[in-house]
Specification:
Elements: H1 2-12, H2 18-26, E1 29-33, H3 68-81, E2 85-91, H4 116-125, E3 128-132, H5 151-175, E4 179-183, E5 188-189, H6 197-210, E6 220-225, E7 236-237, H7 241-250, E8 256-260, H8 270-278, E9 284-288, E10 290-292, E11 295-298, H9 304-315, H10 318-321, E12 324-328, H11 337-356, H12 360-368, H13 372-382, H14 387-398, H15 407-416
Parallel strand pairs: 1-2, 1-12, 2-3, 4-6, 6-8, 8-9, 9-12
Antiparallel strand pairs: 5-7, 10-11
Helix pairs in contact: 1-14, 3-11, 5-6, 8-9, 9-11
The chain binds L-rhamnitol (RNT) and zinc ion (ZN).
């Protein structure tokens, strides 16, 4: 408490009210992706094949969740160890089939009832829920999906997309919070194509058809996620940045753009793209991740770009207005999966707190009055202010453990639960 009081005074001297900031951050929803718990496998495929369709997990750390119950147990632990308001983020492949709901159906036939158990899970924990159609790791990827030249393939995946719109509407209605529904496909080619336009025209028409399914755009937010390239599809991506952004711009009454900060060339910064898009879009969505060279899905750290992204969310007023939908997207199978999950979630929270603890108005004044000397000096000084003490207090007020307290809990869980799981 003493540490907090001293830190509070230090921040008050630069015009920051730490209590108000703690309260604000506590109320901002951040979507926790379910797929870190089981290496993006889901439950809807009978064979335990590898991930296909432009994404891949690497690593073989023991303890992967292999059933809905195990995944829910793991998510519960993550929720307990992370401060802040969480939403769940589900993929369609996490549908739960049982004898009560009629058993297995393919992805073009999934219904809200296959997500009833997830709705119950969210209701019990007061969570909203985001959703994603799963356009990968399935025999109907030929290997393309929505952009395939084969009309049967396209039809199957369009039906899947429409089913997901209906499920997203159900999630929003049941849980009373908006549901962000992200459309991402890995459609693309390994080598130089002969026709770059055809797949994109087909992709556009397929998304048009999916979005022709009725939904309330105030509650269901379909997103179009772009990508620069994927593993095995290095030469050409159908849903490139220009394609996806243009689609969203041309269909503002139906969808919003989604930027994943692992989906750009290494020197491009998503932090800078946030205000660029907010100039033209009412709402945008983010997948926060950590790119390394060619890979996009490492655990989120408290690193410079995460901090810059958080600053842009805060400085643009998006934290108050909800104009930026914040979701996490990473999957590491080489380390304890729960630690990976918790590390990333706590780090985006920490980055948002750091951004909120910055006197952005006075810094903007320095910029506008061409006072770049003081702007640099002040920005450097803020870096060593007592963020850690405010963070500790924030965790405490959220009922979450402080740094230094949570890892042992996961180690115990690993010993008692994860180590005993069957390996498949
Ligand atoms: C893949 C995309 C996509 C997925 C998830 C699982 O490159 O980032 O968002 O990671 O849908
Ligand atoms: Zn993503």
């Amino acid at each position: 408490m003493n540490n907090y009081n001293n830190a509070k005074k230090a921040y008050a001297s630069i015009g920051i009210d730490t209590d108000a900031i703690i309260n604000k951050l506590m109320s901002v929803p951040v979507a926790l992706h379910c797929w870190q718990g089981d290496d993006v496998k889901g439950f809807d495929q009978k064979t335990d094949g590898p991930l296909t369709g432009g994404i891949q997990t690497t690593g073989n750390y023991p303890g992967r969740a292999t059933t809905p119950e195990e995944l829910m147990d793991d998510i519960d632990l993550v929720l307990k160890l992370c401060p802040g308001t969480k939403k769940l983020n589900l993929h369609a492949c996490y549908a739960i089939f049982d004898s009560e709901n009629g058993g297995w159906v393919d992805r073009d036939k999934i219904e809200p009832k296959h997500f009833k158990k997830w709705v119950d899970f969210c209701k019990e924990r007061n969570l909203g829920c985001d959703f994603n159609p799963t356009f990968f790791s399935h025999p109907m990827c030929d290997p393309l999906t929505l952009s395939s030249p084969n009309p049967d393939t396209r039809k199957f995946w369009i039906e899947h997309g429409k089913a997901c719109i209906r499920i997203s509407q159900y999630l929003a209605d049941e849980l009373g919070q908006e549901c962000v529904m992200n459309i991402w496909t890995g459609d693309g080619f390994k080598d130089i194509p002969a026709d770059r336009l055809g797949p994109r025209m087909r992709y556009k028409e397929s998304i048009d058809e999916i979005l022709s399914e009725p939904y309330d755009f105030k509650k269901v937010k379909p997103c179009i996620e772009s990508k620069v390239f994927g593993i095995g599809v290095e030469a050409y991506t159908v849903g490139s940045a220009e394609f996806s952004l243009s689609y969203a711009a041309a269909n503002k009454d139906k969808c919003i753009p989604l930027m994943d900060n692992g989906h750009y060339h290494p020197t491009e910064m998503v932090s800078d793209k946030i205000p660029a898009l907010l100039t033209f879009f009412d709402e945008i969505a983010l997948h926060i991740t950590r790119p390394i060279r060619w890979d996009s899905d490492h655990v989120v750290l408290f690193d410079d770009e995460t901090k810059e992204i958080a600053k842009e969310i805060v400085r643009t007023g998006a934290l108050d207005s909800g104009r930026v939908k914040i979701a996490l997207d990473y999957f590491d199978a080489s380390i304890n999966r729960i630690s990976a999950w918790v590390t990333g979630f706590r780090n985006i929270q920490k980055a948002l707190l750091f951004a909120l603890l910055t006197p952005n108005e006075s810094l903007t004044e320095m910029q506008d009055s061409d006072n770049w000397t003081e702007l640099m000096v002040r920005q450097e000084e803020f870096k060593t202010m007592p963020l850690g003490d405010i963070w500790e207090e924030y965790c405490k007020r959220c009922g979450a453990p402080a740094d230094g307290e949570w890892f042992q809990i996961i180690k115990n869980y690993e010993k008692e639960i994860l180590a005993k799981r069957r390996k498949i």
